[in-house]
């Protein structure tokens, strides 16, 4: 169970009036005060910084030759290859940054070297190989006659492999942004922004941006060769930059701004006219338009990453991103979408298993969470570890002990520990654990892992994310050592999950005006986070949750809750979403929430995305009271009303179908009781349902079919609530009934809060309809049985359940 979150509000000094007025010039439809406050607290404090931050046309990007001698050496070696018509291999990586970097070099260098003959690419298999160069792959390239390897998003620390390539007559140009080696490797050139100071405008470049800078330098050095403009690569650069979560400052921000613009322009074209039909099709599948950074971080990025996580080999993604063949791109996009669907399913399964293991941990004595399992697929461990780290506020390391280790993988180990290597090679592959680590709370995870290098087989990463492998027998020792190390460094500091808000707003503030004002901060990312808005003393209405469906209409176990939010600032409600949560998780009554303001391009509406919610601080709950329950069952409605004292009771007139259904009312009553100033004003719950008068299940089914035919014939829309009231069944049973209708040839589509039902008798699935109807009838019988039980259940049983729930909520 996640620990109680700690909420913090970023404290900031009020920006001066001149700065607010300067920001207002960029937000003419609003006051600019919120954007000014955010920009000021994020270090933008003069006109020159402000203009360059908001308007990319005012920003002066760095020359690719800022990399100095290393860029000169790289261009000289590429020109030598160009003149001698040598064969070149691009060596990429399998994540979104590596895939887009490979694609940039494929398209960019492809202007100078003929693709598939002079120019080829190689991407390691995520599930069989590791990041970086390996000797087996180098052997393969040598057999194909390659004389030069250009890496992207990898290679800086592959000293042994670079030496091996040189022995085979292959030079290496490294383009990368990861950890630097202690000494310059024996390469033709190494282009890595980590050689710059942290303040340099190129320091935060990701792998795709470094690759772009190499191509930019080649364009400038051989100006009359390329047939396509350099700017055609910018959309790929934006995808890789945002998907890799690098700090979007300096040239990173500039390139992302330009790239998003190119992405949006291309998407507006019909599919046959797009430069990148594969990217366009992916955007269509995830119902995005490419004009927002979140279209990449929540749409394109996860889909590109999913391929290697599920299939291992992500090589076809380069074709997906670069091909002009619309039919082929559509096929590859659908394969990618299926991989992402599978990734969601696997991730959900692992999350459930990890949650179960967490219940066995004492988090009060745990600084670093280390969990292992033989069945966990390695491809999704980083995603789950990131979620656990956020929920618990602790660095999290998840390890899979399934058979993944191979002798080839061992040979790449950068750890100079001969005895460990020999021990690893002498054991079976099943004895090797491999996993991912994620950090929070500014804990340098990479340093933590590095300090335990003597226990590891290999590792790599950065302060917030790392990958590692080690012998299974070393896991307990590793977990104990890394926990002790972090405890010592923290001292008396306690790790707690934290959610941070930037601004306090009201529901009346939400909408187009505020959205456009905050949009001047985009693209958001590391170092410039999406603004988090605190809304206090609000409440939720019209909440509804459902499973998300994939692009083929098949159910994916992914929940989202839709709702309207209100407060006292105005009469209008505002729509919102809460991903991964059920509607019953929303607090009853007044609460505080932290959310992000967004624009839904699919529904064409402004909405909030809920981040965190809790009962309102302004109505702190008194946990001493239990709900008072009045038993008014099987009485007339007016008599039930007359028996309530001064209308202080909540009256429950619908017979419940489960204890969970009844508990919702008990908790609602309890929440109101806790906020009462005196016991005399304590909220009561009157259970006032009558003995159910059930129709036969067959008759209910005929009624549902009759309504569906009527709606199809009249082309009318219906709400879910209207259907439930007319037929007299629960949500869950209605869902079973809708499935049965579909097998009879009905199509049921959701339009916002309405259902559209149409009938095509030719679509009837005879072999499935009878079974589906039988399931509906069984669901109705079960529901009626439950209602019959609650019609007569003793009041003492209900009171016992209520007191038990109250005790649990008081002592958790």
Quick overview of this protein structure:
By secondary structure, the protein is an alpha/beta fold.
Order of strands across the main sheet: 3-2-4-5-6
Helicity level: 40-55%
Give the number of DSSP strands: 24
Strand content: 15-25%
Distance between the termini: 10 Å
Count of alpha/pi helices = 27
Structural class by helix and strand composition: alpha/beta
Main beta sheet = 5 strands, parallel
Features of the shown structure:
812 residues; alpha/beta; five-stranded parallel sheet; 27 helices; disordered C terminus
Structure commentary:
The chain contains 27 helices and 24 strands. α5 links the parallel β2 (87-91) and β3 (119-122). It has 812 residues and is of the alpha/beta class. Mean pLDDT is 84; it is low at 404-430, 619-626, 676-680 and 806-812.
Secondary structure elements and pairings:
Blueprint: E1 6-9, H1 17-24, H2 33-41, H3 47-54, H4 69-84, E2 87-91, H5 96-109, E3 119-122, H6 135-143, E4 146-151, H7 159-167, E5 171-175, E6 189-191, H8 207-221, H9 234-243, H10 251-267, H11 277-285, H12 293-311, H13 316-322, H14 326-358, E7 369-373, H15 381-392, E8 396-400, H16 407-410, H17 418-425, E9 432-438, H18 445-450, E10 458-462, E11 465-471, H19 475-490, E12 498-501, E13 503-505, H20 512-518, E14 533-549, E15 555-566, E16 574-579, E17 591-600, E18 605-615, E19 628-631, H21 637-643, E20 649-652, H22 659-674, E21 684-687, H23 697-714, E22 717-719, H24 720-727, H25 731-743, E23 746-751, E24 754-759, H26 766-792, H27 795-811
């Amino acid at each position: 169970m996640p620990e109680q979150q700690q909420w913090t509000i970023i404290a900031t000094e009020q920006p001066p009036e001149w700065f607010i007025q300067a920001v207002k010039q960029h937000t003419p439809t609003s006051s600019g005060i919120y954007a000014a406050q955010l920009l000021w607290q994020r270090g933008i404090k003069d006109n020159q910084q402000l203009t360059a931050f908001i308007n990319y046309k005012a920003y002066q990007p760095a020359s690719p030759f800022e990399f100095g001698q290393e860029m000169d050496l790289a261009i000289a070696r590429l020109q030598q290859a160009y003149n001698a018509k040598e064969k070149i291999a691009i060596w990429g990586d399998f994540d979104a940054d590596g895939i887009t970097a490979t694609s940039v070099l494929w398209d960019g260098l492809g202007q100078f070297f003929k693709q598939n003959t002079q120019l080829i690419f190689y991407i390691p298999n995520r599930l069989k190989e590791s990041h970086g160069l390996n000797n087996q792959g180098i052997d393969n390239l040598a057999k194909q006659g390659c004389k030069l390897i250009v890496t992207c998003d990898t290679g800086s620390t592959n000293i042994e492999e670079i030496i091996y390539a040189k022995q085979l007559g292959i030079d290496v140009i490294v383009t990368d942004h990861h950890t630097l080696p202690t000494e310059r490797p024996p390469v033709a050139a190494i282009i890595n922004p980590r050689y710059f100071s942290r303040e340099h405008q190129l320091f935060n470049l990701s792998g795709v941006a470094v690759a772009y800078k190499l191509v930019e330098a080649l364009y400038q050095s051989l100006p009359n060769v390329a047939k396509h403009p350099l700017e055609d690569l910018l959309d790929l650069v934006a995808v890789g930059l945002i998907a890799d979560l690098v700090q979007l400052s300096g040239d990173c921000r500039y390139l992302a701004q330009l790239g998003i613009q190119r992405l949006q322009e291309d998407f507006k074209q019909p599919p046959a006219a797009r430069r990148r039909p594969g990217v366009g099709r992916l955007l269509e599948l995830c119902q995005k338009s490419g004009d927002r950074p979140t279209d990449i971080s929540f749409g394109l990025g996860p889909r590109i990453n999913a391929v290697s996580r599920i299939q291992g080999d992500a090589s076809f993604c380069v074709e997906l991103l670069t091909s002009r063949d619309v039919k082929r791109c559509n096929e590859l996009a659908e394969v990618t979408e299926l991989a992402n669907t599978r990734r969601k399913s696997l991730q959900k399964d692992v999350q459930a298993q990890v949650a179960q293991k967490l219940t066995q941990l004492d988090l009060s004595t745990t600084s670093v969470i280390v969990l292992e399992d033989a069945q966990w697929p390695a491809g999704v461990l980083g995603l789950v570890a990131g979620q656990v780290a956020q929920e618990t506020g602790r660095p999290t390391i998840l390890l899979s002990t399934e058979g993944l280790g191979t002798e080839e993988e061992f040979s790449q180990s950068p750890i100079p520990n001969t005895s460990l290597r020999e021990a690893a090679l002498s054991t079976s592959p099943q004895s090797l654990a491999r996993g991912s680590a994620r950090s929070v709370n500014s804990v340098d995870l990479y340093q933590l892992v590095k300090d335990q290098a003597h226990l590891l087989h290999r590792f790599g990463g950065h302060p917030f994310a790392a990958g590692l492998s080690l012998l299974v027998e070393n896991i307990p020792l590793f977990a104990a050592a890394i926990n002790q190390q972090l405890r010592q460094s923290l001292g008396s500091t306690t790790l707690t999950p934290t959610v941070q808000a930037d601004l306090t707003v009201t529901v009346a503030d939400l909408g187009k005006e505020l959205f456009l004002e905050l949009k001047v901060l985009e693209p958001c990312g590391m170092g410039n986070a999406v603004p988090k808005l605190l809304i206090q003393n609000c409440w939720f209405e019209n909440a509804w949750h459902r499973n998300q469906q994939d692009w083929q209409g098949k159910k994916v176990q992914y929940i989202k809750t839709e709702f309207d939010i209100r407060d006292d600032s105005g009469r209008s409600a505002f729509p919102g979403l809460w991903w991964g949560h059920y509607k019953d998780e929303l607090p009853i009554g007044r609460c505080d929430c932290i959310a992000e303001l967004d624009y839904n391009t699919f529904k064409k509406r402004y909405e909030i995305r809920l981040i965190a919610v809790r009962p309102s601080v302004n109505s702190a709950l008194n946990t001493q009271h239990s709900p008072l329950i009045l038993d008014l069952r099987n009485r007339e409605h007016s008599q039930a009303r007359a028996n309530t004292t001064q209308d202080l009771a909540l009256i429950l007139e619908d017979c419940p179908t489960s204890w969970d259904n009844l508990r919702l009312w008990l908790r609602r009553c309890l929440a109101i009781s806790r906020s009462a100033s005196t016991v005399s004003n304590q909220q009561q719950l009157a259970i006032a349902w009558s003995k159910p008068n059930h129709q036969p299940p067959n008759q209910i089914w005929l009624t549902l079919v009759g309504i569906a035919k009527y709606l199809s014939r009249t082309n009318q829309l219906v709400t879910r609530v209207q259907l439930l009231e007319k037929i007299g069944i629960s949500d869950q049973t209605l869902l079973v009934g809708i499935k049965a209708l579909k097998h009879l040839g009905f199509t049921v589509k959701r339009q916002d809060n309405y259902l559209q039902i149409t009938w095509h008798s030719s679509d009837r699935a005879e072999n499935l309809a009878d079974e589906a109807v039988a399931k509906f009838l069984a669901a109705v019988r079960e529901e009626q049985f439950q209602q019959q039980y609650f019609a007569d259940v003793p009041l003492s049983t209900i009171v016992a359940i209520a007191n038990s729930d109250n005790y649990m909520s008081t002592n958790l």
